[in-house]
Amino acid sequence: MQTKILLPEDRIPKQWYNIIPDMPGPLAPVIHPGTLQPVTPDDLLPIFPMALIEQEVSTQRWIEIPEPVREIYRLWRPAPLYRAHRLEKALGTPARIYYKYEGGSPAGSHKPNTAIPQAYYNKAAGTRRIATETGAGQWGTSMALACQMFGLECTVYMVKVSFGQKPYRKSMMELWGAEVLPSPSNRTNAGRAILARDPQNQGSLGIAISEAVEDAATRDDTRYALGSVLNHVCLHQTVIGLEAKEQMALVGDYPDVVIGCHGGGSNFAGIGFPFVADKANGKQVRIVAVEPTSCPTLTKGVYAFDYGDTAKMAPIAKMYTLGHDFMPPGIHAGGLRYHGASPLVSQLVHAGVVEAKAVAQTACFEAAILFARTEAIIPAPESSHAIRGAIEEALQAKEEGKERTILFNLSGHGHVDMAAYDAYFSGQLEDFEYPAEAIKESLAHLPKVTF
Prior knowledge:
Elements: E1 4-5, E2 15-17, H1 41-44, H2 50-57, E3 62-64, H3 67-73, E4 81-83, H4 85-91, E5 96-101, H5 112-124, E6 129-134, H6 138-150, E7 153-159, H7 160-165, H8 167-175, E8 179-183, H9 189-197, H10 205-217, E9 222-225, H11 231-237, H12 239-250, E10 257-261, H13 266-280, E11 286-292, H14 297-300, E12 302-307, E13 316-321, H15 343-350, E14 355-359, H16 361-375, H17 384-400, E15 405-410, H18 418-425, H19 436-443
């Protein structure tokens, strides 16, 4: 009865899978926030190195992973695939449940899969410093690690509510040499303007992005790095699904459903996109994004052009959005609080290729606790959304008396997120469904784009 399905280091993917050639229809243009015209590479050069700009728009299906990146990947890749025998037994389900475990990376999540190549390409382009943002801290720790690996300075604008809730994430970033600022901060014009209006503002990813983009755009030695949403980020994360496909083949199985938690879309794209390619080639597989009811971008947002940040400095993209000035509640899921979604994921959901569902946080914690007590790994609160989705699929299989193969991405461990578990056990966590009126108000401020 095999539990861990492992690949040797020489099976780390040598290429990333680019889904753009296999998308249902052409991509919508990315719009300059000032001119409201499609962006050019020159528009993006103050923010990103050319290599990443080229990956953002590439129509090449397979893109080589540089050997220095693969060399660092060897620290934790290939990541193990587990068969959740004990969880299956606890649920009494005929379903087979597998999970790809990304918590073995140095930062404890999937985020280094893109942080390492982003740092590599920036170093090659002569960048000396990276400015970035982070919500729960998984991306900030990963970028701090990557900058340390390539000798870059790193400044991280951390959403203020998470800065207070997750102090050990801040410690990890500082351990790897990064400067960490609670956002909104007094460091940038965007931060100062928001604090002038609301000195108690708890922050959002949209605000933190505004600060990091402003920081990068106003310094010649600095570039910006984003941990989710963008095409090149989703590209880098496909190592997850590519490995998982090989591992499933080793045990002669294939998923009926593939599940990932969803915030901006990076870990979901990582596990899901390689299976979208199979689906495009006729495979019968469902691919499901699970998001929180408190930040229901895919399930309650609109598919429209919107700014990527609160201060309207980042490019405008067509995506599912709750509005760029959406202010999420200060709940546990600091990593699933972005107002928008990856344009690639959004287009797949809009086309019906990918499904989306929203779940409440208490149900997610119940799932996380059952998982920890059966499979022994303590999940990150964000990852618990995927566990909840997998459990619901397994219980449906039990009700129908049918076998089903379920694969989900356990995107990170919760070792530095125990305050959230403390809050759950003390009864302080409540379910929050973001009110429709608030979403309607936020959506009233979408940009007027005619493309």
